[in-house]
Amino acid sequence: MYDIPFLDLPPLRGAAGSVRLPGSKSISNRVLLLAGLAEGTTVLRDLLDSDDTRVMLAALRTMGCTLQPQADGGLAVTGLGGRLPVREAALFLGNAGTAMRPLAAALAVLVTLQGGRFELSGVPRMHERPIGDLVDALRQLGCQVDDFGQPGYPPLALHGQPGGRLATQRPIRVRGDVSSQFLTALLLALPLACADGPVTVEVEGELISKPYVEITLKLLQRFGIEVQRQGFERFTLPQGCRYRSPGTLHVEADASSASYFIALGAIAATAAPVRIEGVGLDSIQGDIRFVDAARAMGAVVDGGPGWLEVRRGAWPLRAVTLDANHIPDAAMTLAVMALYAEGTTRLDNIASWRVKETDRIAAMAAELRKLGATVTEGADFIEVTPPAGAWQHAAIHTYDDHRIAMCLSLVAFNPLAATGTEAGVTVRILDPRCVAKTFPDYFETLFTAVEVRAADVPVITIDGPTASGKGTLAAAVAARLGWHQLDSGLLYRATALAAQRQGVADGDATGLAAVAASLHLRFDGERVLLSGTDVATDLRLEAVGAMASRISALPEVRAALEALQLSYRRLPGLVADGRDMGTVIFPAAPLKVFLTASPAMRAERRHKQLISKGIAANLADLRADLEARDARDRGRAIAPLKPADDALLLDNSGLTIDASVDQVLGWWAQRGPFRSA
Ligand code: DC
């Protein structure tokens, strides 16, 4: 996961492969609440693990539910069975509308009947997202709800005395034209209020986002509650209805998240389709109808229960005019697909975009314009025309909105667009971590299904003599950028160690090359697995380092390791450290650093390092050894240690690690197309 200020996406040129998507947010938070209110234990499988579900889990725990992770990855939730064991608490719900609304309704009903006081709050944006229509409906029921911040918005306080009564004789009226989540919240909570008679809810105004209400009804059904209804206007919960645990419940993958991979297929899957696992044409989620919209734009979509396969059909894509009210979240992806279409795409009836995680109409318009698109926005529509000329480099603001970050990542396919250039443009996604709201591994998943030219993947090389601090610096720079790291010295050390173990002698160039070519190395956190066993400590032994230094002078060994080193150049970028990263392996790297420190300083660092590991060492010997190794690395005929002509020199003798990292990141910021961003 990228806990970094920005992620640069180089131009992407194709897509293929298979992705498994995380569980649906809408289903996860609904079933968590239902399981939490039901009597008995429900095992939930494939739940989404994200910011929004974590706040729901924390809330349920605070309310007194028991949550027990299962060995097989499921979660066993033992519900309250309609009784509140905890009567007072403050619940923080982040920016999760799917937690705030239903919890407000359920707790309001529970404290009215049983007494208690709960405060519900969230992040500042949550306090700008309307909830007044739900508060009105709950007050009709006789609940005491204080919107003690700004009237009509969270935070809310819900309170009541034991033995209170609910006014259920008359229908509860709720507006349906701002958010369907108000109706959903009532439907999920009202089984708690049906002991003495049926309860009816009537919807005022045209209900928006109907498919989300259908999810609610289907999940209530799974918990034994049959809601009687007339269209989308009147819903009745029968007298005596109770949540009954279905035992085990499987959560489908998120259909809104699938929209990015469906779009990916439509835009870039020309040789083989993109396969999506976890959600299929049988989905109960309304956003599965994104498939129809994608088909209308040209995608070829196949599918069955739990799977989809998508390929490019029409190209360029076809512009569409669409009432997107039924797929409000996934429709954002259509606004990005519009960049790859011929003509103007118009999405109508999307006023709800303005009250989501951010004002999504304004945000999409602003970001698409940065790329060169022509965008017209209205109160409830957006019109997108692709850039007329070449696409512009853009640093995309994400407004703490996961869907903005995910859908706009698709602009990285710009070389494929009609006005895209062969070279393509790099796109910077600011605050990429906001995807954690629903899809923490979004970018990692994306990178497994895209094709990129190796030369487009950015590389920073850090070369320098032994014990100059390259490895530490490279690891820190890689972590700050969210990139991969290649410690090339480790490959030479691993070759030396493997040769020692296999009894291949120092002088046997052919034998050593064969060992190098067949290295089975895998990195797993701090562990380095050589043919399955952890050799992280052995690789650091002086004897291994010395042999590595000797065998690294053999052209056969260097050649045998080249392909392996090049294979580390993967999205979103690579920091490679060693002796010849900038001169031989990645000669066209956009930033090359040559790191030095005085021999005295390097000997001291190595000494400290060894002592800290409990290995006895003598400073004078270490320095002599290090100078001998420098001489050998510099003097060898092949790939001698020297700065590349275009390398920037960094002497870190007097610098802290942080200062060196900042220097390299500062140089990098000057290199890319985002100097002013
Ligand atoms: O950086 P290190 O001490 O882990 O490297 C071990 C040996 O490998 C070192 O003596 C030189 C050699 N090496 C090399 O020749 N080329 C590289 N790119 C990296 C290391």
Characteristic key phrases:
single chain; about 675 residues; alpha/beta; UDP-n-acetylglucosamine1-carboxyvinyl-transferase, Chain; Rossmann fold; 5-stranded parallel β-sheet; 4-stranded mixed β-sheet; 21 helices; elongated; binds 2'-deoxycytidine-5'-monophosphate
Unreliable runs, pLDDT <50, ≥5 residues? none
Characterize the biggest β-sheet.
5 strands, parallel
What count of domains describes the coordinates? Answer: 4
User: Residue share in helices?
Assistant: 25-40%
Strand arrangement across the biggest beta sheet:
29-33-28-34-35
Report the count of strand segments. 35
What distance separates the N and C termini? Answer: 23 Å
CATH topology of the largest domain, anyone? UDP-n-acetylglucosamine1-carboxyvinyl-transferase, Chain
Radius of gyration: 30 Å
Principal-axes geometry comes out as elongated
CATH architecture designation of the largest domain? Alpha-beta prism
List bound small molecules. Answer: 2'-deoxycytidine-5'-monophosphate
Q: What is the CATH superfamily label of the largest domain?
A: Enolpyruvate transferase domain
Query: Proportion of β residues?
Result: 15-25%
Number of helices: 21
How would you describe the overall organization of this protein?
- 35% of the residues lie in helices and 21% in strands.
- It is of the alpha/beta class and 677 residues long.
- It has four domains: 6-22 and 254-454, Alpha-beta prism (UDP-n-acetylglucosamine1-carboxyvinyl-transferase, Chain); 25-250, Enolpyruvate transferase domain (UDP-n-acetylglucosamine1-carboxyvinyl-transferase, Chain, Alpha-beta prism); 457-483 and 572-677, P-loop containing nucleotide triphosphate hydrolases (Rossmann fold); 489-568, Rossmann fold, CATH 3.40.50.300.
- The protein has a five-stranded parallel beta sheet with strand order 29-33-28-34-35. Strands 3-16-18-17 form a four-stranded mixed beta sheet. Strands 5-6-4-15 form a four-stranded mixed beta sheet, covered by helices on one side.
- The longest helix is centred in the N-terminal third of the chain and has 18 residues, at 97-114.
- The relative contact order is 0.10.
- The mean pLDDT is 95.
- 2'-deoxycytidine-5'-monophosphate (DC) is lined by residues 466, 488-489, 492-493, 545, 548-549, 552, 578-581, 629, 633.
